[in-house]
Structures are given as structure tokens and as C-alpha cells.
Amino acid sequence: MSNKKTGNVLFQQANEAYFDDEFEQSESLYTQAIAADSTVGDYYLKRAQVRSKLGNTSGASSDARKASDLTANKSDQLRQYFKALYLHGKWAFELKQYDEAAESLRKAATINPSHEEVKALLEKTEPLTTPVPEPQAEPEAEGTEPARPKVRHEWYQTDDFVILEVFIKRVQKDAAAVEFGERAVSLSVKMATGSENNYDFDPLQHNIVASESTFEVLSTKIEIRLKKAQPGVKWSHLEQTDEDQAAKSLSQLGSSRKGVSWDTIAADAEKEAKLKPSEQGVNELFQSIYRDADPDTRRAMMKSYVESNGTSLSTDWSSVGKGPVETLPPTDTFAKPYSS
Which of 14, 36, 94, 261 could form a disulfide bond with 254, CB atoms 3.0-4.6 angstroms apart? Predict the structure, then answer.
């Protein structure tokens, strides 16, 4: 039996024990389920509730925090994410960990602004948090571009929006301005001291709809809601990374002798024969695979395609990483060495 199946079986047994009020046995079974598969947020969330029943508030709070980490940015687990945030905020408040409580409750309130218990608890927690000092820009060396002032920010997403939270307290509503671009967002804040701080997030990982993006100045933060240009597409990072740039370059390598452009391949194929409906999305397919892949899969795709001179495309890094990828020309053809 696989670890995931074992974990699920133990999880079901733990649930049954919980419903029978056998809390100690239930906690033990949830712990065994987590040992079998520690990637499931619901396992931690359920154990957190059992530990609360047993009076272990510290353990319950820790489990709820872990559950929120495992379910964050997963649109199909938004309900569990909200519950984990709320419970962590509640128990952290009881433990007088006010900064941690406020952090989780703010996120929960953003997901469900009308939840009365979250709103009431957040109002009690906010005055007890540690004041956040005004962000200061680091000294600039001559000839260098101004550094982005250091400030804590976090983000999460739904199917339609990416929500960016910039934590600066006591900003006047007319002292903040946000500019939205096709793939960038810029925040400007005039501080009480008269200084002005600018925060640029450019380029973002994916395009946004500037006209439908908004922001709101709250007592402890500035919340920026970025409307996704492609609803349902999962962002793995807020800003574009080097790997994202590599993915973009993959479709622009047609000018290189070792590169390839899926657009060019599709266009050339259409000249020779009409594409079947199932073939028309080849460009989108390969780009989608690369965009959503993990780092090992991306390395495998790049390495296999380049080293095989475009005759092979693999997603299995455990195989590709062992050595050079052989050129495999189509049947009845042969590979001709490149000469400049």
C-alpha cells in the first residue's frame, strides 16, 4: 500500500475515533496519517481540532499554521485554507501571540470579509500587535539604481485575482497611489515624515487586467487586488523569475540553430498540410507544460530538446540528467552534423 493510501486509511480511522469522542486515539491516528503523508493540510487541520479538545492549545495552533501553509494558493482548498487561518488566529490570540494571530486573521478576513467572528477577533487583536516601523531605504552607492525600500509584503490568489498585501501601518487614504500596467504594479506611499517610498513589482509573473485591478488602504496594510488576465491560471511566484524567462525564451529560440519556436513549427506545418484539430494547440500545449512544470521537469525539457537537436523532448530529469541526449532523427533520415 502506498504512503498516500496508508495515510488516507489512517485518516478515516482517526475521523471515526473523533466522532466517537475518543480524542486521544484520534490524535494518535492523525499523527500516524501525517507520518505516512505529510503533504495533506487536512490531516494537520483535523489534528489541530483534536489537540484543542485535549487542551493542547500550543500544538493546535502549530498544526493550524502548518495546515494554512499546505493549503495556501490552492483554489480547490480555499475552504480549508480559510478555516486553518481562522483557527490559527484564534489559538495564537489565546497564547498571546498577537502578531501571528493578526497575520492569519487579516488573510482570513480578505477571503471572507463578512465573517463576523473573524472581524470581531481581528478588532481585538490589532491594538495588541507590535508597531511596524516606517520602512527606510538603504543608502545608495553612486551610480546605482535606487533600492526598493524594505517592507513586509505577502500575496495569495484565487481563480480570478492575485491579492498583494503590503504591511505599512497608519497610512492616510490619500497618501497612497497605485499604478497598474499590463504586467507590473507600482505603489507610491507618502509617509507622515514627508518622505515618499515607492515599491515596484515588475515584471509580474503573468499579465493582469489593469482596468479591473484595485487597491484599498486599511489600518495595518495596503491591499492590492490584481485581476488575472487568464482566470484560473495558477501563479507560482508574484514576480517573474529566471525560470519564467527561460520558458518565454523557449518559444523564441527559432533563430538559434539549437533552438525552436513552437509558433514557427506550427506555421510551417500549416503550409504543408492542414493541421488536425487536435494538433492546432501544440504551441499552447508545450508552453503550458513548461509553465506549470517543476524545476526538474523544465531542466529535462530544455536539456533534451537542445542536446537532441530538436528530435527529442523529455520531462523525465532522472533519465535526461544522466548524460547527453542522443539525436534521434525520424525513420529513413539521418542526422547531419552542423557546420557554421
Answer: 261
Task: Give 200's strand partners.
Answer: 186
Strands 161-166 and 196-201: unpaired
Cis peptide before 203 (omega within 30 of 0): yes
Could you tell me which residues are beta bridge partners of residue 222? Answer: 166, 217
Q: How many CB atoms lie within 10 A of CB 247?
A: 21
Using CA atoms, how far residue 61 sits from 21, 46, 229, in Å, is 21, 12, 37
Q: Find all residues with CB under 8 Å of 299, minimum gap 6, and list them.
A: 317, 320, 321
User: E-strand spans in the chain?
Assistant: 153-157, 161-166, 176-180, 185-190, 196-201, 214-217, 222-227
Residuewise pLDDT in 10s, the chain (340 residues): 678 899 999 999 999 999 999 999 999 999 999 999 999 999 999 999 999 999 999 999 999 999 999 998 787 888 999 999 999 999 999 999 999 999 999 999 988 888 999 999 999 998 998 875 555 555 555 555 455 556 888 888 888 999 999 988 888 888 999 999 999 999 999 887 778 888 999 899 999 999 999 999 887 889 999 999 999 999 988 998 877 666 665 555 544 444 455 555 555 555 544 444 444 455 556 666 767 777 777 787 887 777 777 777 778 877 777 888 777 665 555 555 554 4
Burial 258-284 (b: 16+ CB within 10 A, else e): ebbbbebebeeeeeeeeeeeeeeeebe
Alpha carbon distance 227, 179 (integer Å): 13
> What is the value of pTM for the model shown?
0.46
CB 295 within 8 A of CB 317: no
Helix (H, G, I), strand (E, B) or coil at 222: strand
